[in-house]
Amino acid sequence: MALDTGGVTSLYRTGEYDPSSDGARSDAPTLQDGYDVGAALKAIRQFHGVTLQDLADATRIRQTYLEALEGMRLDELPSRPFAIGYVKAYARHLGLDADEAVERFRNDNPEHDEGLRAPVGVRKERDPRLALILIAGLLIGAAILLWNVAQRAIAEKAPSKAVVAEAPGVGAPTDFSGPIQVGGAIPPPVESTTPDDYVTPGMANNGDGSETAAKAAEAPVLSLPIGAAFKPEGAIYGAPAGATVIIKARRNGTFEVKGADGSNYFTRVLQQGESYRVPALKGLTVTVSDPGLFQVFVAGRYTGPLPGLVTQSATLLAQAPAPAPAPPAVQ
To answer: pLDDT tens digit string along 261-270?
Structure first.
């Protein structure tokens, strides 16, 4: 491909020899002159008055590369294929036979053509960390191998003696004059690691392997007779005084009152002795953790414990005691 010469039609100065002109001077140097092709190209360039700068502008080759080519300092060029291309461009722009110049170049430097060399000044160095990683891996592997060998050696040297308890009353015979008496089977040794019998927490062992529920240390609770009067023993929550139904806690327990629409009226852990006055509203629901922990008083009289975990207030009102019969009239 022809290179852009920037509008220069001739590389030769005015009045100098131009190969395209008719009659060439017989004393002009040729490609076969000089001790190498670089010297021949330089002589032809100087003979025709062409400077390196002019040639560099026309061929677009660095001036330093052209100087190295004329001095045949090939180690300063990128690679041999590039040097051959520079020879062709140099000869072509001087009006010479490019193939003849390349042939002279190959004869002067009969090395085999090689690929592109690495850039000048670049050194290939290995990462020193790779060597450190390799050494560390070898050391770890050697340590694991030595540890396994040591463990096996210790296991082989360790004594394995089975210790068997000697049966009581059975010993080695001391009189070998008579027949040897062979005793019964020796009982198995007592296993010292057998754990004690497991006792469930809160249960008492009767000695025969069976267990009964242990008595919990609880404060005594006095049961009320039906019809007993209500006696406050703690805080009273809920409706104001005068409510028909009062629920009293025998022990601590969760107590919750909700309306018919699910709204929460009261939620609390009632302590022992605390009470709640049930409002006179329809659809109230009383929910507790244990119905046996709560006493129901209707119109100030004890009617019994809550009937269930969830109780309607209407059910509690139905437990109201029947009014006492009126005394007979005196005639």
So the answer is: 988 989 999 9
Q: How far apart are CA 141 and CA 154, in angstroms?
A: 20
Q: Are strands 245-249 and 294-298 parallel, antiparallel or unpaired?
A: antiparallel
Structure tokens at 73: 């300092």
pLDDT for 187 equals 65
DSSP string, 27-80: T---TT-SSSHHHHHHHHHHHTT--HHHHHHHHT--HHHHHHHHTT-GGGSS-H
Distance between CA 75 and CA 37 in Å, rounded?
A: 16
DSSP-based three-state secondary structure for 107: helix
Is residue 310 a contact partner of residue 283, using CB atoms and an 8 Å limit? no
Q: Distance of CA 71 to CAs 37, 43, 107, 120, 184, Å? A: 9, 12, 16, 18, 114
| Contact by Cβ (8 Å): 248, 237 | no
More confident residue, 185 or 230: 230
Between CA 7 and CA 4 the distance in angstroms is 8
Q: Where are the alpha helices (DSSP H) in the chain?
A: 37-47, 52-59, 63-70, 80-92, 98-108, 128-157, 313-317
Neighbours of 292 (CB within 10 A): 11
Are 280 and 252 in contact by the 8 Å Cβ rule? The answer is no
- Report residue 242 as tokens: 């005068």
What average pLDDT score do residues 300-315 get?
88
Provide the pLDDT confidence category of residue 314 given band limits of 50, 70 and 90.
confident
Q: CA–CA separation, 263 vs 256, rounded Å?
A: 11
Contact 285, 257 (CB under 8 A): yes
Alpha carbon 84 to its chain's center: 59
**Whole-number pLDDT of residue 141:** 95
For residue 264, the surrounding DSSP H or E stretch is strand 264-270
What's the CA gap between 197 and 205, in Å, rounded?
A: 10
CA-based R_g, the chain, Å? 60
> CA 327, CA 145: separation in Å to the nearest integer?
108
